[in-house]
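Weekly structure sync, notes
Attendees: PL (lead), two postdocs, one rotation student
Agenda item 3: pending single-chain targets
PL asked that the sequence for the first pending target be pasted directly into the notes so everyone works from the same version. It is reproduced below exactly as submitted, 335 residues in total.
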Amino acid sequence: MTVRKAWIVGGAALGAGLGFVMLLVVGVFVVAGNLANEVGGGTKTLAKGAVPVAYRELVQKWGNKCPAINPALLAAQLYQESGFNPKAQSAAAAQGIAQFIPGTWAAHGVDGDGDGDKDVWDPKDAIPSAAEYDCSLASYVRNVPGNLTENMLASYNAGAYAVIKYGGVPPYQETRNYVKTITTLEESFAAPVSRVDPSEQAAGAIYYSQKKLGTPYLWGGNGTAADDGRFDCSGLTKAAYESVGITLPRVANDQYNAGPHPSRDELLPGDLVFFSDDLGNSRAIRHVGIYVGGGYMIDAPRTGAVIRFDPIDTPDYFGATRVTEDGAKALPTTV
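Predicted structure, written out during the meeting:
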């Protein structure tokens, strides 16, 4: 999935590289212990490229509409609802990037861009309307005990009456799952305000990947018997994390939202690293590898190549994700 230049490794260098990776596999747990006690805080802003550039300014502006929401939370809702697709339409007649049903749009749609109409298919109206709707729901439940944002999200799913009736998030499994999903996804759209805690499963994912070094690339490959054990880039990372009990989406741009995003100087072995020709849009990501340290990743690069070590510091480097179990579970099955 990439035209990045190959890093050709001789037999001796490959053996040394494997030894290096094994040291990193052990060392990641030491680093985890050193970082786990660091505490973050502050106002959440959008992570680089997490929201398509066409909508970033809108999400950043309207995500600050009221205290119950923030730009990362609004982005998480839009991603969950439509995958930022302004033409999305569900079987239940939900429409546009924010998936308003006609009755809700009639009551809560706003003319966000001031052009004289309220168009559910226009993100310049739909994104402001989503923020306005969230804030309206928050105002309805502002006196309910508990976390205002969680109560607002519960109102979005189950209705404000249910939140008021139960004095907080109601005991509906669907509603509780929705609240957890959005608040978890929020972290994948937020720029970190402190060091991101390491993943406990990182070492196992690296161990799996290193055993696949030298395996020929196959477009669409998942490593199954039908694929003769071959992978493409996202098939490899998916299988690596499945080996430690975490299920990732199949394609690279969806895997990007499986956790928070450490900066380049905070990368740890096991982080997924992503590449794109459009550095302002996570939906345009076209390649992924698993970071092993020292500026290198293990990846399945392209047709005709094998799974190998490659450098990550290339002009198309997009960013990284520290995969978490909750983050992976929160991802929508289709976006």
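Discussion points:
- The mean pLDDT is 86.
- The first strand starts at residue 272 and ends at 275.
Action: rotation student to compare against the earlier draft before next sync.
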